[in-house]
Write a structure and sequence with these properties.
heterodimer; A: 161 residues; Ubiquitin-like (UB roll); five-stranded mixed sheet; 5 strands; globular; B: 749 residues; alpha+beta; Aldehyde Oxidoreductase, domain 4; Aldehyde Oxidoreductase, domain 3; eight-stranded mixed sheet; 28% helix
Chain lengths: 161, 749
């Protein structure tokens, strides 16, 4: 069996050290080693977006990143989106807009949408659709997801205004 | 109760499991962990049709970390009998054969052997070391191919049933049935225009984002404990018990959260294998499918060959309709052609009808239900022929449909006579919608319409409700929640109890903890499990009125309840006040409901769609999409809209892109989510919804199931829109760019 490698990261703001086999993906490490199962596996080849996390300031599908590549990186997963016991505005607007049905793609969508709003607080519908085209949802037809992101963006604008 | 008096039904509360699902805390099957867990891997056939001569597991067993290897020979060989697999009876040998192949592999991806090891990687490596000696056989991949004289025979013992009787003839046609109504020849003789067309539709997958998974522990006391993602925990229990030849009471299935199903998570694939691996190793065993496994080894819904012939008078009155439906069952009989035949002309009131259905086995994965299974294929054919008739007669396509629309009292060719239905109301809502009159605004654009019907099912459901001392209640039910049904069920209980939806805490529990509940399918959960909750809540109210009577020393019959307030004479007491007094009046109050409801109300849906066709590439862009559906009574309108939007998106994918792209050897060439092209956010516009409410007289709140009918119209509506945009008739799914270009070129020739 291959020797395990020690990896030091910061996950959701907390230092986190773990041991992994060189062949294990970051997705496997998060789920099976660290125990953060909020990040989901839908395809394991980068095509569905269910395993989307932030690696430093990049949006990545964690199934296409090796665990050892995360050495020294900051990782944000769905478990790190809420602010303590308070939901993030995006999480609230997903609930208010009924933007999920089965919920398996939801963590990936929320992580990706948060990255979008951090990058561009006032995206157009087209920009939201383009940004989220990496994330597949089979339940909703995307309508309510797009509206949830629009609502979260609008509310953030109001707060700023 | 009258509609205007509802205080919970028709509102939009936040779903009860919402916080868990937006924070990553909700536990799906793959998230389940326990000490000592081993990981399983399934070896699958690389051939579409092959005799298995020998399986040698020696090398795999020697790999360090491997704990057990098993094949079909390890299953108890219980004598064959019919078992209910969730949507009807199937021979036990077929269910067992699909879980692990015995004798022959019948499709590429057919499970052949399984390994348990200390890690998923080792299990996968070990599976690669299993040596299987195959004799490769020629294969038949489509219904017309498998029906041909001299086609490779897939089951040597499958004798064709014709009109309910065995013919004694061995062929790939498992069954041929026929529905007849009226006089078809007279009907066509009366017609002034007759259109007959042929259609082909590709095999498509349900495409849920969560792959199948199962964890099983064969405990030392002989109990088998299972945690999995399924549409029917009781189906998993019953099938596992049958296949392993143990009493059902020895099996407990805990349904974890499920990441989509659409019919594809009704069949049982992994659980009995995981259980046997657990028995061999003494450890719990978890098996996860890869995406490729999901495409090659589960689901899909049938590809089909369809002929539809419709005749009408010049005034638009349809006088006769005939259909020939040949559906691919995949490796084992049971292709969803029966529901296809029920739905092919279901939206119309036609006096003279003949429908022939053929259930044909082919060397593809055993097919499963997919949202209104069988109906989408059939409606694609009917709706394009109806459109062609409207065009020939110069009648507006919605007017033609209205003129022939099914209504209360219409009899379908397969037998049933409709009770109150909403077909006319749906078409009228389409006609009235501003979308129908809006300008198209450019060249190569067209607008199409189509309608669809799904009959919905009832089936058994159970529910209990316990009243807490603070006036909240706990509701326990057995329907896997695939799209917000915890809430639509809780709302129906809340309405009866006169308390807010938030005060009902619904939980989906394991098979030891609730009465039998059939699958989450057939658009039945809000209808039937909702009804069980309604009954349980009525039971609670009956008991509470007795408690009130006891407190006030009066007769229970004199106690009334309205919006959570009990009254008798001039006395009154709230639900909450009474809940605090239960201990003094006799102890806890627990209500139960167990139903097998009749009174199912079918649902009609319709689409208006605008497309733009690129004449250089054949790419079809959806510009605008309106979905209309009869919900009877929308319990939670947001989730009704969600069903309509989701079904529409799946229908659009089916229409434009999705297909099992097979080579001649029966290998699916596009078994990844990159190449099996499901719609992304960028492919779709907003999907406008119109909920029509024609209350179902067979349900306490008038609800009709809304999960399925919405997937039926999109292919027909889009084909009709493409015709109006560029003048070509599409009669093959998917209508992808090459197919559209071919149609445009052949029109130019």
């Amino acid at each position: 069996m291959p020797a395990k490698v020690r990896v030091q990261t910061i996950i959701n703001g907390e230092p986190q050290e773990f041991l992994c086999e060189p062949r294990q993906s970051l997705l496997e490490c998060l789920r099976d080693v660290v125990g953060l199962t909020g990040t989901k596996e839908g395809c394991n080849d980068g095509n569905c977006g269910a395993c989307t996390v932030m690696l430093d300031d990049r949006v990545v599908t964690s199934c296409l990143v090796l665990g050892v590549e995360a050495e020294g990186c900051r990782i944000t997963t769905i478990e790190g989106i809420a602010m303590g016991s308070e939901l993030h505005p995006l999480q609230r607007s997903f609930l208010e807009n009924a933007a999920l049905q089965c919920g398996i793609c939801t963590p990936g969508f929320i992580v990706a949408a948060k990255a979008l709003l951090d990058h561009d607080p006032n995206p157009s519908e087209e920009q939201i659709r383009l940004w989220l085209a990496n994330n597949l949802c089979r339940c909703t037809g995307y309508d309510k997801i797009i509206r949830a992101v629009q609502q979260a963006a609008a509310q953030a604008q109001e707060v700023r205004a | 109760m009258k509609a205007q008096e509802y205080s919970v039904v028709g509102t939009r509360p936040i779903r009860h499991d919402g916080a868990d699902k937006v924070t990553g805390r909700a536990l799906y099957g793959a998230d389940f962990q326990m000490a000592g867990l081993l990981y399983g891997h399934i070896l699958r056939s690389p051939h579409a049709h092959a005799r298995i001569r020998r399986i040698d597991t020696t090398k795999a067993e020697k790999l360090p970390g491997v704990k057990a290897v098993l094949t079909a020979a390890d299953f108890p060989q219980a004598p064959d009998r019919l078992v209910d697999l969730g949507e009807g009876d199937t021979p036990l040998s077929y269910a067992r054969g699909n879980v692990l192949a015995s004798g022959k592999a019948l499709y590429r991806g057919h499970a052949v052997a399984a390994v348990a090891a200390s890690s998923a990687h080792i299990a996968e490596e070990a599976a690669g070391l299993i040596e299987v000696d195959y004799e490769v056989l020629s294969c038949a991949l489509t219904a017309p191919e498998a029906m041909r004289e001299g086609a490779p025979i897939i089951h040597e013992d499958l004798k064709t049933k014709e009109f309910g009787e065995s013919t004694g003839r061995v062929s790939n046609v498992a069954e041929h049935f026929r529905h007849v109504m009226g006089d078809i020849e007279a009907g066509f003789a009366e017609a002034e225009v007759v259109v007959e067309r042929e259609f082909h539709t590709a095999t498509v997958h349900q495409g849920y984002i969560e792959p199948h998974n199962a964890t099983a522990l064969w405990n030392t006391d002989g109990r088998i404990l299972i945690w999995c993602s399924t549409q029917g925990s009781f189906v998993v229990r019953d099938v596992t018990a049958c296949l392993l030849d143990v009493p059902v009471s020895r099996v407990r299935v805990t349904p974890m959260e499920i990441g989509g199903g659409f019919g594809g998570k009704i069949p049982v694939y992994l659980e009995p294998v995981a259980a046997l691996l657990s028995k061999k190793t003494g450890h719990p065993v978890k098996i996860l499918m890869s995406r490729k496994d999901v495409f090659e080894g589960t689901g899909p819904t049938p590809g089909s060959y369809i002929k539809v012939k419709i005749g009408a008078r010049k005034d638009g009155h349809i006088t006769a309709a005939q259909a020939y439906l040949a559906y691919e069952a995949g490796a084992y009989p049971g292709s969803m052609v029966a529901p296809g035949a029920m739905c092919v002309f279901a939206a119309y009131d036609i006096a003279n009808v003949v429908i022939d259905g053929f259930d044909v086995v082919v060397n593809k994965p055993s097919t499963a239900a997919y949202r209104a299974p069988g109906a989408t294929n059939a409606a694609f054919a009917t709706e394009t022929v109806v459109d062609e008739i409207a065009e020939k007669l110069g009648i507006d396509p919605l007017d033609l449909r209205l003129k022939n629309a099914a209504k209360e009292g219409t009899r379908r060719a397969d037998g049933p006579k409709y009770r109150r239905i909403g077909c006319v109301e749906v078409i009228e809502a389409m006609k009235k919608h501003p979308h129908y009159a809006a300008p198209l605004g450019g060249p190569n654009r067209g607008r199409g319409v189509a309608v669809g019907f799904w009959f919905n099912v009832g089936l058994p459901s159970s529910c209990t409700i316990s009243v807490n001392a603070d006036g909240t209640v706990n509701l326990v039910e057995g329907s896997t929640d695939i799209g917000g049904t915890r809430t639509s069920i809780a709302m129906q209980a809340a309405e009866v109890l006169g308390i807010p939806a938030e005060d009902v805490r619904p939980t989906v529990v394991d098979t030891d903890s609730v009465g039998f509940t059939a699958v989450t399918g057939g658009s039945r959960v809000t209808f039937a499990t909702g009804w069980a909750a309604y009954e349980a809540a009525q039971d609670v109210m009956r008991q509470l009125k007795e408690r009130v009577a006891k407190l006030w020393e009066t007769d229970a019959a004199s106690v009334t309840a309205d919006h959570g307030v009990f009254r008798s004479g001039d006395k009154s007491m709230t639900f909450r006040e009474l809940a605090a007094k239960l201990d003094q009046t006799g102890g806890p109050v627990v209500g139960s409901g167990a139903v097998n409801p009749r009174g199912v109300g079918g649902s009609f849906s319709g689409n208006i769609v605008d497309v733009e066709v690129d004449p250089e590439t054949g790419k079809v862009t959806i510009l605008r999409f309106t979905a209309v559906q009869d919900a009877g009574r929308a319990i939670h309108p947001s989730y009704v809209e969600g069903q309509m939007q989701g079904g529409s998106a799946q229908g659009i994918g089916w229409a434009l892109n999705e297909e099992y792209y097979m080579n001649r050897d029966g290998t699916m060439m596009n078994s990844s989510l990159l190449d099996y092209r499901m719609p992304t956010a960028l492919d779709l516009p907003m999907i406008d919804t119109v909920i029509v409410e024609v209350p179902n007289p067979g349900h306490p709140f008038g609800a009709r199931g809304v999960g399925e009918a919405n997937i039926i119209p999109p292919p027909g509506a889009i084909a009709n829109a493409i015709h109006r945009a560029v003048g070509v008739r599409m009669r093959r799914l998917p209508m992808n760019p090459p197919a559209v270009m071919e149609a445009i070129w052949s029109q130019r020739d």
